[in-house]
Design brief:
OB fold (Dihydrolipoamide Acetyltransferase, E2P), alpha+beta, 12 strands
Amino acid sequence: MDEPSNQNEFADNGEWKPSPIEVTHPEIVKPGDIRLFHDPPWRLRMTIEGDRSYLKIKIVRAAPLTQPDDYICFLDLKDEVICMVDRLEDLAQENHKIVHSELDQRYLTARVERVESIRNEFGVSYWLVDTDRGMREFVTKNVAENAQWIDEKRMMILDVDGNRFEFAGLDTFDKKSRGLIEEVL
């Protein structure tokens, strides 16, 4: 009987080298088997009971604008999907607070209440707006491409730093704000 070949374990010079680590994720994960915790306090970890643990994960929304509490994805260090949960409520109750906290940090959104000014220069817009978090200045490139319409009266604009600004109820904005928004869109 032939012995298995170990040629992948040795470098060209004959010295031993480690085999590449291949990470596979489980095919099926029951939401109730997911346990989330921070250890150390600034690092989010996940254990799938009876299966495996992940030392560092991210939580993201698959449909952040239209279904914020549905289709929650858990990503590994390489931003590959470990698993997805259809509904936040499917997770164990003790995970809800952690998931909400992580998602709130990742999807921090300021709700725009009034537009004070918009200045355009070479396809770049400089905005001064009053939001639910106070006065904010932000910069966008090509507003038409970075504005995401959620419905007829609600849109989201991403600035150059990835911050989100929600414009809800555009028909309720004051005349000046509506005029400035219409100029750039």
